[in-house]
Amino acid sequence: MSDAASFPVPQEWDVEPDAAAVPSARRLVVEIARFWRVPLSDDALRDVELCTSEIVANAMEHTKARCRVTVRWTGERLRVEVSDSSLRLPDRDTAQDMITGGRGLLLVEGLSHSWGWYPAEAGKVVWFECAADQLVTGHARLAVLVHASQAHTASLAQSV
What we know:
Layout: E1 11-15, H1 21-35, H2 42-63, E2 67-73, E3 77-84, H3 104-111, E4 114-120, E5 123-131, H4 138-159
Antiparallel strand pairs: 1-2, 2-3, 3-5, 4-5
């Protein structure tokens, strides 16, 4: 008998370039995590859902093409990856339109344990990870949401 840990096979699927596909993608990520019995609270799963929405929507907005979602469980962290065909690097500080969006990566950065990107064959992969013991709660969670809201408010004031 082996002492090696056994983890679920990563799940992957394509998401069509349609804003209506984002809710289905985020719900599927949460359904997979629940099926795998990933030890994340309902609050943490809501954050996973929000972060998934943000990076899937970003992929669609910047490519107008299909993207691929991959979900992995490492035994310690739930990892969600979104691959797209854009060579444009994700940058939370240079959102083009903070009035209608642009705060997504601020939320991903604040609500996930870690996030990043790496180059892929014909584009890039943006990922985030959530760990059960690293849940952002209470005042820290509120601070993340307030910071994103303030960034939005500041951009509205500058546009007037």
